[in-house]
């Protein structure tokens, strides 16, 4: 397979370590400790019984930590995949409580890293840190997703002790970004603070610490995990990274760039961009009917590249070489009617897929692959709504900019997104100012992101998965990162990190995809048994009876329970059955990773 060559530059920074700012730029050759052909094999975890639960309230003590409640949770209180989670102990608490560093009319709260930890009575000897998504701000139920959509099990159900946190701030307000310490907690310090405390709590509950420790999450949770891989490489044995926003500040800027392109289309047609609640009218620039037109054109050029015409594009690189929006989709000669795209639409869509750029043509973020999953509702929500409402604009304004913007921006997120200056505003993610002594690029991203030598040499492993139709974090960005990690390890990193692309999957889950899979079990088997994940079987969720929940966007032409192998990049799933026109295309057994 021929790999597509890409190079991203921002503030004049290009080269082997993709998308790193100058102050942290380290040559690929700095990864001096080359991987050996025989890495350590870690032993398997051993099970234990919970020694105490409610007594932990009075017995456990850790620096700057307050346990606020301890209770026994009966079996069946929580369910996953249609079956009950066993009895466990629930511990809630907070760390590093303090007053806010700033005191304004909108930000005068106290802060703490709040958490909950669930400790199974029948423990498998493992610890799982659950990285949560978005801007955090709430303590999600500590169950530990195994990846993808429609979970049939989770880490807690499998017997892990699991911790979840709010990453150092409470509530949905983005104004925590005005507090410099809250920024750092969100970026990396919550994981650094909670990890030793959680292991100590496990020791108090079971009489010993965890044999093996894992961390995982999707989206911002994937970012947390990748950051931990470079900042906490000795703390975890397995890292499960989903749809990683590891370059989140740049990706958020790219969302604003996309909104600006859509706005140009409708403004030229006499429509003023507007919001109604949490939705915008930017979808008028690229309607559902027109997205279906483009999806059909992508499938015409790319569907059969993997040997099966099945509504999925496995060969991302091949599709890049085969599909050209300008020539594959008709250009309107009169009014738009759903059978063509106007020249303005093609210009806007091409610019978005080529990646955000400033007026000098310098890349601000990576490009995206064309994928037929763009017809999904999740894709549309990120492109037309989250890009101009209470997601990306407020993240950029209050968390990633230095100094943060005036709080009044929150009253006009659409205006902020459309007026954001790609020349003068975008570079502020690399800047520091006053009490904001660490830039967003520093606290949000992995440190020297291609050097995973400490993790590698311990025998730890990493599995990364990413949907090819993710509209907010480009799978091409993750692909470039993996290529750079490979280069930094003598051209082969497969003995400790593997990357799986999920065709058609939108952000973290859903889309026109087989998105139900278990990466955590594959990771455990790799870490503790040395079983390399040569493929992970994924299932569609078109069946209303799917215990993990139905994905209503699965096409009627698919078997609702279609399976596919997810293949470690650069391999793709290729049809090797005997009849590509039969039901053989619904079964992963008829596909091999090549």
Mean pLDDT: 93
Radius of gyration: 24 Å
Mind describing the biggest β-sheet? 9 strands, mixed
* Strand residue content: 15-25%
Shape from CA axes? Answer: globular
Quick overview:
The protein has helices at 56-59, 180-206, 220-231, 248-268, 288-302, 316-322, 325-328, 343-354, 377-386, 392-400, 413-419, 440-444, 453-458, 475-488, 519-529, and strands at 48-49, 65-73, 79-80, 83-84, 88-99, 110-120, 122-123, 126-130, 161-165, 212-218, 238-242, 275-276, 279-280, 461-467, 497-502, 536-539, 563-566, 573-575, 591-593. With 594 residues, the chain is α/β, with parallel strands linked by helices. It has 2 domains: 1-44 and 230-594, no CATH class; 47-210, no CATH class.
Report on the architecture of this protein.
Mean pLDDT is 93; it is low at 1-9 and 11-36. The chain is 28% helix and 16% strand. The protein has 15 helices and 19 strands. It starts with 47 loop residues before the first strand and ends with a strand. It folds into two domains: 1-44 and 230-594, no CATH class; 47-210, no CATH class. The protein has helices spanning 56-59, 180-206, 220-231, 248-268, 288-302, 316-322, 325-328, 343-354, 377-386, 392-400, 413-419, 440-444, 453-458, 475-488, 519-529, and strands at residues 48-49, 65-73, 79-80, 83-84, 88-99, 110-120, 122-123, 126-130, 161-165, 212-218, 238-242, 275-276, 279-280, 461-467, 497-502, 536-539, 563-566, 573-575, 591-593. The protein is α/β, with parallel strands linked by helices. The strands form six sheets. Strands 2-5-6-9-8-10-11-14-15 form a nine-stranded mixed beta sheet, sandwiched between helices. The protein has a two-stranded antiparallel ribbon with strand order 1-7. It has a two-stranded antiparallel sheet with strand order 3-4.
């Amino acid at each position: 397979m021929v790999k597509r060559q890409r190079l991203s530059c921002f503030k004049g920074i290009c080269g082997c370590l993709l998308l790193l700012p100058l102050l942290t730029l380290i040559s690929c050759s700095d990864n001096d400790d080359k991987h050996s052909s025989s890495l350590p094999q870690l032993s398997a975890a051993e099970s234990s019984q919970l020694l105490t639960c409610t007594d932990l309230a009075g017995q456990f003590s850790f620096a700057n930590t307050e346990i606020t409640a301890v209770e026994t949770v009966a079996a069946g209180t929580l369910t996953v995949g249609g079956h009950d989670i066993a009895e466990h102990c629930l511990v809630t608490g907070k760390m590093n409580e303090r007053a806010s560093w700033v005191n304004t009319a909108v930000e005068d709260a106290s802060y703490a890293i709040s958490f909950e930890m669930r400790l199974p009575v029948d423990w498998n000897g493992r610890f799982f840190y659950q990285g949560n998504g978005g801007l955090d701000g709430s303590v999600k139920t500590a169950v530990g997703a195994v990846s993808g959509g429609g979970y049939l099990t989770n880490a807690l159900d499998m017997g892990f002790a699991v911790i979840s946190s709010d990453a150092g701030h409470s509530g949905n307000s983005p104004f925590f970004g005005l507090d410099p310490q809250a920024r750092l907690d969100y970026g990396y310090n919550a994981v650094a603070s909670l990890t030793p405390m959680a292991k100590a709590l496990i020791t108090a509950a079971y009489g010993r610490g965890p044999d093996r420790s894992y961390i995982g999450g999707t989206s911002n949770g994937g970012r947390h995990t990748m950051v931990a891989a470079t900042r906490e490489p000795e703390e975890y044995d397995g890292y499960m990274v989903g749809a990683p926003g590891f370059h989140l500040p740049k990706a958020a800027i790219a969302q604003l760039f996309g909104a600006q392109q859509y706005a140009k289309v409708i403004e030229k047609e006499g429509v003023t961009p507007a919001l109604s609640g949490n939705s915008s009218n930017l979808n008028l620039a690229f309607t559902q009917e027109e997205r279906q037109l483009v999806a059909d054109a992508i499938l015409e050029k790319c569907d059969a590249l993997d040997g099966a015409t099945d509504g999925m594009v496995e060969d991302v690189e091949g599709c890049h070489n085969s599909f050209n929006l300008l020539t594959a989709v008709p250009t309107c000669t009169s009014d738009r009617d759903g059978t063509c795209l106007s020249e303005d639409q093609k210009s806007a869509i091409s610019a978005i897929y080529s990646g955000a750029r400033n007026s000098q043509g310098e890349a601000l973020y990576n490009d995206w692959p064309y994928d037929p999953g763009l017809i999904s509702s999740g894709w549309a929500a990120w492109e037309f709504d989250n890009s101009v409402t209470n997601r990306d604009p407020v993240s950029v304004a209050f968390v990633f900019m230095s100094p943060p913007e005036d709080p009044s921006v929150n009253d006009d997120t659409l205006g902020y997104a459309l007026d954001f200056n790609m020349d003068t505003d975008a570079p502020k993610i690399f800047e520091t100012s006053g009490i904001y002594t660490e830039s967003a690029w520093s606290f949000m991203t992995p440190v020297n992101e291609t050097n995973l030598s400490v993790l590698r040499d311990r025998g730890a492993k990493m599995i990364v998965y990413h949907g090819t139709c993710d509209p907010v974090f480009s799978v091409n960005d993750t692909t470039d990162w993996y290529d750079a990690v490979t280069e930094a390890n003598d051209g082969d990193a497969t003995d400790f990190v593997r990357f799986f692309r999920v065709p058609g999957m939108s952000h973290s889950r859903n889309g026109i995809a087989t998105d139900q899979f278990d990466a955590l079990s594959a990771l455990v088997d790799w870490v503790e048994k040395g079983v390399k994940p040569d493929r992970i079987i994924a299932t569609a969720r078109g069946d209303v009876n799917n215990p993990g929940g139905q994905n209503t966007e699965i096409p009627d032409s698919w078997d609702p329970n279609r399976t596919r192998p997810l293949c470690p990049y650069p391999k793709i799933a290729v049809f090797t059955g005997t009849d590509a026109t039969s039901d053989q295309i619904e079964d992963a057994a008829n596909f091999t990773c090549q």
